[in-house]
């Protein structure tokens, strides 16, 4: 890679890291303000997303000298776990939307 592509990828990783961290903070604030099944799922899903994100970065560093098959297997596993975490977060968000914003006005 040349220098300009490395800069682009670095900027992308920084933005992704910051948005992941901001979303985790928002989920934590939401959970502190209201402890329900929905906010539990949102928080747990988001924590797992954060852990798998950091894990995938570390995995890339540690498998850098491994064979291509090992790298692809590790990345595939990481993507599956991260997407399951996003699904848990999304289910919690749907439950929150249905329970908190569907109440009839009195």
UniProtKB/TrEMBL annotation:
Domain of life of the organism encoding this protein: Bacteria
Transmembrane feature ranges: 6-31, 38-59, 79-98
Keywords from the named record: Membrane, Transmembrane, Transmembrane helix
Name of the protein described by the UniProt record: Uncharacterized protein
Organism: Winogradskyella pacifica
């Amino acid at each position: 890679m040349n220098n300009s592509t490395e800069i682009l990828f670095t900027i992308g990783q920084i933005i992704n890291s910051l948005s992941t961290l901001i979303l985790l903070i928002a989920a934590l604030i939401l959970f502190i303000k209201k402890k329900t099944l929905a906010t539990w799922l949102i928080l747990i899903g988001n924590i797992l997303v954060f852990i798998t994100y950091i894990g995938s970065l570390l995995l890339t560093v540690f498998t850098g000298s491994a064979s291509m098959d090992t790298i692809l297997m590790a990345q595939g596993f990481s993507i599956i776990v991260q997407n399951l975490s996003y699904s848990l977060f999304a289910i919690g968000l749907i439950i929150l939307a249905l329970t908190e914003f569907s109440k009839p006005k009195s």
